[in-house]
Input
Amino acid sequence: MNDPETATLMHTEDLPYITNDLKGVGGEIKVEPAHFVVEEIPLYEPSGQGQHVYVRLTKEGWTTRDIQNQLADLFDLRDVDIGCAGRKDKHARTTQTFSLSLPNTDDDEVAARIEEHIPVDLEWVRRHKNKIKAGHLLGNRFRIVVLDPVEGALAQAEAVLHVLRERGLPNFYGPQRFGRQGDNAEQGRQILLTGQGPRKRWLRRLLLRAYQSALFNTWLVARMDRGWFNRLLVGDVAKKRDTGGLFEVEDAQAAQPRLDRDEITYTGPIYGYRMWWANGDPGTLERSILEDAGVTEEMLQLAHLNGSRRRARLVLEDLEVEAHPDGLLLTFSLPKGSYATTVLREVMKA
Output
């Protein structure tokens, strides 16, 4: 087992590429918000009735929290009265839905006040019975411009995308998860090892989740190194794509065609004391990652980390690239919790 004081975490820039046999196109992103367009894919459509007003809007230059604060001030609401499915980037053009607990306010009045006082593009206002909570979305659609790529970039990008469609994409956590300095995960690790850390509860959770994410990335790299990325193994905890149900793989040979058709995928550990552990060789690998980190299940329990499973391999059916006046335009969709940067790093390798 590694010494807990000297064990190091893999940084996102050191993660392997699934397309490592192909060159990237270089370039840059996010020069302006219109070059990075994100649209939430809703989990459900509002019914038209209920005490919550759903507001679909597009913003630029504002964080999700900024918009929540604007809505709270405009309608004299508490933070708990406003819901959203997830955070969106400030330096992008993002479309998402918010819910406001306004049982007695006319929908037209809601729309008029937003359009007058908040600098966003309002798409629609509708009612529903429940508040939008974190994770209430299927995923996100992306339209991303890569500026100033290398000469011949379109052909190179098409070659990378062809391989990604065939092999799938490792569902790594992106650098956004680890903070501007990239040290959130290490701080989370120290909380686990020492029991010491910031007093603010939300900050502790942020740092601990970053460490869970780093451990997942480490596990996925180890799986790839073993040649198991496109293979199911006996003992894997697999996930059904249509229902999201989890099950343990007992006959890997019989289940492999379902993986090949993207009906199921294996999952990786978001380490916690209540996590569903894999068995067999996959289980041995999962436990070795935690042991090498010097972390015990008791530490996870003391930190109140329940744990879960994360889809490890993504098949991108709508991944496309075309020429753009400023370079290349990439379009694709990702399930919730997945990062556009995992696609971009394979294409750009910059």
Remarks:
- The domain at 169-314 is CATH 3.30.2350.20 (Pseudouridine synthase).
- The two ends are 34 Å apart (CA to CA).
- The CA atoms of residues 57 and 123 lie 5 Å apart.
- The longest strand covers residues 137-147.
